[in-house]
């Protein structure tokens, strides 16, 4: 009895998500290991198991290699090819993974009508860009077609998908001028939407873009040409999103307008402030100073409340750190849970300095000089905020 294609895709997606990286396969760029946060999202509101440690690497890689070879022989649509390529990209640099990846990518580029990449929707484009970032040996023709499709979709992308797309292509070193300029224009629109929402009043914390976070299941049966126009005008919902855009542009040598950089830094600062206040509100009050009996009586409630604090912190940080708090349900804080919130921007923050000009890209300043120059930047941000008010 022949296994259906959707079942093969679901199995490949599940095997890849459960974590196949072994100690000798540490080649994936930081920020794209979806299983590293301990929470696997197969759809809106659905969570998978938490995997402790590494799985059986040899058997898992062998199974996924066989699945990739079988999928390469079948007729797949562009969206399913993107899911299969994402699964194969988690195998590391094994020869079987490379062969299957190239076969599937050639199948995608051989589609009529300008190639299958031109038919991908927003979620599939982001998933495929993540796969190309994980697989450093992705074909250059696929990267070019993917960047062109991303440039066409950028004017309608929501903030989480836009940040993930720019970050993934920056990790793959794909500097597409049209995509960079389109992402800058879209970022300006999102910053304006955020400013309008802030002026109108406090936003709801549950507005995370619905099912448009790019974590669709492997057996998705949506149309390959879907534009995915869902929740695209809600502005930035997490501080990680403007940070990912600024860092990705910096790595690709793209200098956005200075006013836009200041606006995005102001948005990120405001969102960090909101996230900090949300975590502070979830922090339980200190136990009353009493004897040992009082401490023992208040121990259980304090321990129970501390779990909520860890969950709120994990939600505000977007799952950047995998630990005991990652297995608990995340609080819906500042739109946490989107695809871009799973980026490991926290690990990159403070390590890379965004240069003011491409010629200064290699001139990274020492930490002491950065601290001395920080007050003028804060003054510029304050002046800009006052002008906006």
In a nutshell, what does this entry contain?
With 389 residues, the chain is mainly alpha-helical. 54% of the residues lie in helices and 1% in strands.
What features would you describe in this structure?
It is built from 14 helices and 2 strands; from the N terminus they run αββααααααααααααα. Among the domains are: 95 residues; 91 residues. It is globular. The longest helix is centred in the last third of the chain and has 25 residues. The N and C termini lie far apart (67 Å). Helix content is 54%, strand content 1%. It has a two-stranded antiparallel sheet. By secondary structure, the chain is an all-alpha fold. Helix 10 runs antiparallel to helix 12. Keywords: Signal. This is RAP domain-containing protein.
Please write out the topology.
Layout: H1 5-17, E1 41-43, E2 46-47, H2 57-73, H3 78-89, H4 95-109, H5 122-134, H6 140-153, H7 159-171, H8 177-200, H9 240-251, H10 258-282, H11 292-297, H12 299-317, H13 345-348, H14 367-388
Antiparallel strand pairs: 1-2
């Amino acid at each position: 009895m022949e296994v259906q294609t959707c079942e093969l895709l679901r199995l490949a997606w599940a095997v890849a998500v459960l974590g196949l990286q072994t100690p000798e396969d540490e080649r994936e760029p930081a920020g794209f290991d979806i299983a590293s946060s301990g929470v696997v999202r197969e759809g809106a509101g659905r969570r998978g198991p938490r995997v402790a440690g590494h799985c059986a690497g040899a058997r898992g890689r062998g199974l996924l290699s066989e699945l990739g070879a079988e999928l390469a022989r079948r007729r797949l649509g562009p969206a399913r090819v993107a899911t299969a390529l994402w699964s194969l990209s988690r195998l590391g640099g094994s020869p079987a993974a490379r062969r299957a990846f190239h076969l599937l990518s050639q199948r995608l580029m051989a589609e009529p009508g300008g190639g299958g990449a031109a038919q991908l929707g927003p979620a599939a484009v982001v998933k495929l860009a993540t796969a190309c970032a994980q697989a450093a040996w992705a074909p250059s023709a696929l990267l070019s077609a993917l960047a062109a499709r991303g440039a066409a979709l950028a004017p309608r992308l929501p903030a989480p998908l836009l940040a993930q797309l720019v970050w993934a292509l920056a990790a793959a070193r794909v500097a597409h001028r049209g995509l960079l300029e389109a992402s800058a224009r879209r970022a300006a629109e999102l910053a304006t939407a955020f400013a309008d929402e802030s002026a109108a009043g406090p936003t709801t914390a549950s507005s995370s873009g619905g099912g448009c976070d790019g974590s669709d299941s492997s057996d998705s049966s949506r149309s390959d040409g879907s534009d995915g126009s869902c929740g695209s005008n809600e502005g930035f919902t997490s501080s990680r999103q403007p940070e990912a855009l600024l860092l990705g542009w910096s790595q690709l040598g793209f200098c956005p307008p200075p006013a836009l950089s200041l606006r995005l830094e102001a948005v990120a600062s405001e969102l960090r402030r909101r996230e900090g206040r949300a975590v502070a509100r979830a922090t339980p009050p200190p136990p009353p100073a009493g004897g040992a009996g009082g401490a023992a009586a208040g121990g259980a409630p304090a321990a129970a409340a501390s779990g909520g604090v860890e969950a709120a912190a994990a939600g505000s940080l977007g799952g950047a750190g995998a630990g005991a708090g990652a297995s608990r349900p995340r609080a819906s804080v500042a739109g946490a849970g989107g695809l871009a919130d799973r980026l490991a921007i926290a690990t990159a923050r403070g390590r890379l300095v965004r240069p003011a000009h491409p010629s200064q890209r290699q001139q990274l300043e020492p930490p002491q000089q950065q601290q001395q120059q920080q007050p003028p930047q804060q003054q510029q941000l304050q002046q800009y905020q006052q002008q906006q008010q």
